[in-house]
Amino acid sequence: MEARMHAFGLFCPRYTEKDGGAVVAAEATVEELARELSSYLDTNRINQVRRAYYYAEQAHEGQMRKSGDRYITHPLAVAGILADLRLDHQSLMAAMLHDVIEDTGIPKDALAEQFGDDVAELVDGVSKLTQIEFRSRAEAQAENFQKMTLAMAKDIRVILVKLADRLHNMRTLGPMPYEKRLRIATETLDIYAPIANRLGMHSICTELEDLGFSSLYPMRAKYISKAVEKLRGSHREIIEDIRGKLQEKLEERGLPGRILGREKHLNSIYNKMKFKQKSFHEIMDVYAFRIITDTEDNCYRILGAVHSLYKPLPGRFKDYIAMPKANGYQSIHTTLFGMHVNIEIQIRTEEMEHIANNGIAAHWMYKNEASGVTTINQSRVDRWVKGLMEMRERADDSMEFIEHVKVDLFPDEIYVFTPKGRIMELPSGATPVDFAYAIHTDIGNASVACRINRNLASLSQPLQSGQTVEIITAPGARPNPAWLSFVVTGKARSSIRHVLKTRKRAESMELGRTLLKRSLKGFGAKLSDISDAQKQAVVNHNQVNSFDDMISDIGLGNRMAYLVARQLVSGNEVLDAPANLENAPDSKQGAVTIRGTEGLLVRFANCCKPIPGDPVVGVMDSGNGMVIHSDTCSRLPEDDEGRARLTHLKWAKDITDEFSVELRVELERQRGVIAEVANAVAMADGNIERISVEDQNARFGIVSLVVHVNGRKHLARVMRRVRNIRAVTHIGRVRH
Ligand code: MN
After folding, report:
1. To the nearest whole percent, how much of the chain has pLDDT over 90?
2. Residue 616 lies in a domain
3. Structural domain that includes position 328
4. Residue 20 sits in the same domain as residue 94
5. How far is the CA of 327 from the centre of ligand 1 (A)?
6. Statement to judge: residues 493 and 513 lie in one domain
7. Does some domain include residue 193?
8. Residue partners of 536: CB distance under 8 A and separation at least 6
9. Same domain flag for 146 and 248
10. Which of 1, 98, 451, 494 is the most buried (most CB within 10 A)?
């Protein structure tokens, strides 16, 4: 069987008869492994692997496997599997140590000190995967889980160690309790076999599949393998017959190549029966061969030769040499009809065969033909990966390519859990707000806070694979415009924009209408008295789409309420007259009432920080609505025309909101005086937003305070309290 063509068997425990017929397990030893390693690693590196072994042996001292074997036999066997794949010494060391952090409590730092950062990182990576596996066993989204597993491993060797770990656990699943066996087998079929497949590691993939299948369905596996056994006998003659004919043909044309008979794997037979509704005999009445040759050219020559021998079936020819599969697999597939049966043939070179079996692992160790030295060749691996990227252009299904290669090997996506264990896929850099919108727009819109792994966290903190994220919502909460500066998903961005835009529109209409009504009042008119015809005339004159747009423009500060009001009341003849602001009957218009909670379009100026009770005016800021200034603010226009553009405002009577105000306190320095100031503010029910010492010398200091108060009276109370402190020499409100 093709899956067994590599020497995986070496490090399985062998059972030997000892005296009295008792069966005793003879453990593989680290020296046997060292002998195998000497074929491709130097002594120094082999010694490092040995050292990792002895370290792990000591750490696991006294621990036993369910089988009764010493625990160390497991990591040793895992290293053995990786040695068969000819992986580098660091991977082997990580294999030796892979359960040390998890099972013996030795910290990562200790491993780094002993074996270097790379090995410690690898062990840590494998441990993290093991934890995830444990935590989310109920997880049904296998596809995403596969991707997450890959994304979590920054170093692809973590996956290789994990696969070898899983393979050995599957080989030794027998003594486990039934429930655990089922879980591990299911997970192997759902997660690990497909990952091996994605990485092109066909040998490990098929072995994991067959072991998983036999554990999950022991009776079906037994039945199918018996049936295969039986068929093998009755088919032997015809197989030999075909093989002979193929061999003859190759020799006749002088083409080099060895011909292997291929057998179907239990799991794939079962899947075909189950999912393709085929009978056992339909599946098995296919005779499958693989021809392995030296060069790509000879693959095509051999194709020609076999097509001349038997007729090819239409639609069954696939050239994966010219168009490799997403995982790098290359081969020619064709199906022939001959000797009254279908004959499936795969044609490939030795190198393609090696890659087909070992995938990414085939690229790890690279034997330099000239010098005979074997080296770890990271750049060769990188080239392979890059080669896969370039194949995208040639791949017949580029979506499939992107799905399987880019996402897997270049983890630019992260996978996080909902509190219920569902996996969400997000681009890397995504924040809890992106996560919230990915779940549902309504959740995104109502987000106020979040927990990451149960701890409160900022909504802007970038998420990492494996985290559990919980969004806290509040009814009536609204998206914050500041979110736009950190969200990375299109969905979050467009949803936030949409809400803000709708909200801005509603608010600009409201503010615009208020301002227009006030201006109309100055002309002794009411909005309800204006005829539709007159409104339409003004709309046409100003070249806007609708009267609503014009009102919204007023609210946004793009259009002056006074001018629109004048056009509305004065009829057509005024429309073309130049605007005359000097005659704006401002004083007669009355003031607009504000309460400070109008929304996006009414903001308080940062320079003078007005609070309720201060005389205030509004300045229209084109496109952004109104900014409220104190009417003594130095930033306000001085000239008449500018003053005419201001909107007179008055505060609503029942404001309970708090407003921030800046205070400057001059004081004599003495111990505890800052605390005394803070205390005085608190005693007057003021909230301190910020307190800082601006300037000081040996005797005097200046303290800057930003305090929240609900109005001028409240502010006066706060200031009186502070002024009463003996050390305070002066207190004043700061306006920039
Ligand atoms: Mn393990």
Report:
1. 27
2. no
3. 222-366
4. yes
5. 26
6. no
7. yes
8. 547
9. no
10. 98
- DSSP output for 269-306: HHHHHHHS---HHHHHSEEEEEEEES-HHHHHHHHHHH
Same domain? For 212 and 248 the reply is no
What mean pLDDT do residues 26-38 have? 85
Mean pLDDT of 207-230: 88
Ligand 1 centroid–CA 62 distance in Å is 16
**Distance from Cα 42 to the centre of ligand 1, integer Å:** 26
- Residue with the larger pLDDT of the pair 396 and 46: 46
**Could you give the CA distance from residue 365 to residue 49 in angstroms, rounded to a whole number?**
16
CA of 99 to the centre of ligand 1 (A): 5
Helix axes 561-570, 532-542, angle to 10 degrees: 130
| Predicted pLDDT at 594 | 79
Task: State percent of the chain over pLDDT 70.
Answer: 82
Whole-number pLDDT of residue 348: 94
The pLDDT, as a whole number, for residue 273 is 81
Selecting among 32, 57, 103, 676, the annotated active-site residue is 103
CA of 80 to the centre of ligand 1 (A): 13
Helices (runs of H) and strands (runs of E) counted in the chain? 31, 24
Domain limit, last residue, from 497, 532, 555: 497
Q: What is the pLDDT of residues 605-664, one digit of tens each?
A: 888 888 888 888 888 887 778 888 888 888 888 777 777 778 888 888 877 778 888 999
What spacing in Å lies between the alpha carbon of 160 and ligand 1's midpoint? 12
Q: Cα(706)–Cα(104) distance, rounded to whole angstroms?
A: 54
d(CA 601, CA 428): 34
- The residue type found at 176 is M
**Tokens of residue 391, six digits:** 């194949």
Residue 612 lies in a domain: no
Span 389-400, average pLDDT: 40
From 316, 340, 366, the end of a domain falls on: 366
Is the same domain home to 390 and 471?
A: yes
Distance 169 CA to ligand 1 centre (A): 7
Cβ partners under 8 Å of residue 31, min gap 6: none
Say how many Å lie between the CA of residue 127 and the centre of ligand 1. 9
Q: Regarding beta strands 423-427 and 413-417, do their DSSP bridges make them parallel or antiparallel, or are they unpaired?
A: antiparallel
Based on the residue annotation, tell me whether 103 is a catalytic residue of this protein. Answer: yes
Distance 98 CA to ligand 1 centre (A): 6
Q: Are residues 174 and 68 in the same domain?
A: yes
Separation of alpha carbons 261 and 243, rounded Å: 8
640 belongs to the catalytic site: no
The tally of domains found in the chain comes to 5
pLDDT, tens only, 395-421 = 343 334 333 433 344 446 787 888 877
User: Are 14 and 143 in a shared domain?
Assistant: yes
The DSSP result for 387-411, as a single string, is: HHHHHTTT-S-HHHHIIIIIHHHS-
What single string gives the DSSP state of each residue in 59-110? HTTT-B-TTSSBTTHHHHHHHHHHHHTT--HHHHHHHHHTTHHHHH---HHH
d(CA 385, CA 379): 10
60 and 199 inside one domain = yes
pTM for the model stands at 0.54
Which CATH number belongs to the domain containing residue 712 in this structure? 3.30.70.260
The model's confidence at residue 150, banded by pLDDT at 50, 70 and 90, is low
Residue 528 lies inside a defined structural domain of this protein: yes
